[in-house]
Structures are given as structure tokens and as C-alpha cells.
């Protein structure tokens, strides 16, 4: 199922600051954003075989979340595997590990969030698992949860909370816009606001 993207900062405000996976997982190109339902892969260190299994199970619009145990030596995917993700309709890739072929991957217009790059391919000896609960940093993610990701980072929304979080997120976007318009009108309105919020 395709879901609408909202800025990660607004989702975070709508979720009381919960669910951020940490600053180590960053987008590969500043303009790329991502939102969708999660399919997961858990890999032994250095492996990437199960990523290919997940490509056959993914539904159109799914986001592939790969727990590579934080390994920064062997790639979870390069431009070939990531091109196949795109072909089967996966919306984006989030990994607590590294990719390779960065220049070619950037040219695919496909949102990838990772810890960085490597030159070394992953091995395909088996042992990975598809659609099991995984973790990115301190955040647990189950298949069917939702993620939002952009230049500010990656945030997870548990499936059961999605509706409520989206309502709060939209309310926050509207109230932030209203506040900005009022407060930033001119210097006097800015100072009046600062005086009000700092009054003891
Ligand atoms: O085949 C792999 O495991 C990684 C790779 O180089 C690619 O996807 O282009």
C-alpha cells in the first residue's frame, strides 16, 4: 500500500519524539524522501543473500528495512541489486549497514538510507531471515510497521499507531504554519512572541 510522505520532523512531533533510528543512518542524496509499509530482512554480518529472497515477497510500495547488524565492511546491495528492488516496485531501502556503487545508485532516483559506502560485496552463504522483527539502533521494527525518511533521518511508526500519529502530525503541521506566519511577520511580532514564551 502506498502512503503519503510527511516530513520526518512532523512525524516525530506527532509521535512525541519516539521512533528515530539515530543519526548514523542517512540518505544518499539530499532530495530523496520515503514513506511506506515495512518488509524486513535480518542478516548475519557480511551476508546479503536474504535480500534477494525479500525482493520476491515484497508488495508494490513496500520499504525494505535491512538489519545488517551495523556492519560497514560488506555491502548489503550495490547498483544491480538496488535496480532490481526498483523493478519489483519496492519504494526504498533502509539499512543499518553499507551499500556500494554509490554514484550509480544515486543516479537511480531511488531512496536509500544507510550508514555509508564500501567497496566490498556481501557474501551469499545463507542464514538471513525475511519478515522477522529487527532493530535499527534502539528502535524495534516489525513487518507491517511504517517508516518515514528524508534528509533529517529515519523514523519508525508502529502499525497500531499509524492513524493516530498521522492525525497529530497533520495538526502539528497546520499549527506550526500558523505560528510561523504570525511570529515571523516582522521584528515586533518576533519580539512579542519571545517575551510571551519566556515570561515566568
Ligand atoms: O551483487 C551484490 O551482492 C552487490 C552488488 O555488487 C550489486 O548489487 O551491484
Name the descriptors.
single chain; about 200 residues; alpha/beta; Glucose Oxidase, domain 1; 2 domains; 6 helices; binds oxaloacetate ion; EC 4.1.1.112; Putative 4-hydroxy-4-methyl-2-oxoglutarate aldolase; lyase; RraA/RraA-like_sf; 4-hydroxy-4-methyl-2-oxoglutarate aldolase activity
Outline the structure in words.
It is a single chain. This protein has 200 residues and is α/β, with parallel strands linked by helices. The chain has 2 domains: 8-159, Ribonuclease E inhibitor RraA/RraA-like (Glucose Oxidase, domain 1, 3-Layer(bba) Sandwich); 165-198, no CATH class. Helix content is 32%, strand content 24%. The protein has 6 helices and 14 strands. It has helices at 8-14, 49-57, 79-87, 102-106, 162-183, 187-198; strands spanning 26-27, 34-42, 63-67, 74-75, 92-95, 98-99, 112-114, 116-117, 120-121, 129-130, 134-136, 139-141, 146-150, 153-157. Strands 1, 2, 3, 5, 7, 10, 13 and 14 form an 8-stranded mixed sheet that branches. Strand 13 (146-150) and strand 14 form a beta hairpin. The termini are far apart. The model has no long low-confidence stretch (mean pLDDT 97). It binds oxaloacetate ion.
